[in-house]
Design a protein that fits this description.
The protein has about 160 residues and is mainly α. The protein contains 7 helices and 2 strands, in the order E-E-H-H-H-H-H-H-H.
């Protein structure tokens, strides 16, 4: 049973989120982006999120079946917040991504980006971090698992 609460940080959307979720930060960003007089381009996942949210759905059902690159763009604050903690980072990315993009591919792409950035924050070169994450994803694919977390480098 999930522990859902109203997001007190988001008076405009007044979203329902899981108590331990990173969604309040995303809700604040969406409020600024969607309701501060913005009349420009909205991507597929944002449009899908708005439609699903207007129907009264709660995350992850608010997410559109979309796996475009915005799943990567949203991972930087998550990688910074859970840097060096692969399991909590994977959970945060999974929960945060599915708010607007409820697609397995989006979660994997977002997780890979967050893992790479987490390694870079810890001092690994971007190219080495990318190779580490690719190797971990290939290993998980060969093993037939959905685990896309990457172990932190040993120093």
């Amino acid at each position: 049973m999930r522990n859902w609460v109203r997001c007190s940080l988001c008076p405009v959307l007044n979203a329902t989120v899981e108590r331990t979720c990173v969604v309040p930060l995303i809700c604040v960003c969406l409020c600024v982006y969607l309701y501060a007089g913005f009349d420009g381009y909205r991507d597929v996942s944002t449009k899908g999120f708005l439609r699903n949210f207007a129907r009264g759905l709660a995350p992850p059902a608010t997410g559109a079946p979309d796996a475009q690159a915005n799943c990567i763009a949203r991972t930087a604050p998550l990688a910074a917040g859970w840097c060096g903690q692969p399991e909590p980072l994977a959970r945060a990315v999974r929960l945060g991504t599915r708010v607007t993009q409820n697609a397995d591919a989006a979660v994997v792409w977002g997780g890979a980006a967050a893992d790479i950035l987490s390694h870079v924050i810890l001092g690994v070169s971007p190219s080495q971090a990318t190779r580490m994450v690719i190797a971990a994803l290939q290993h998980a694919a060969r093993a037939g698992t959905e685990d896309n977390t990457v172990q932190q480098p040993t120093r």
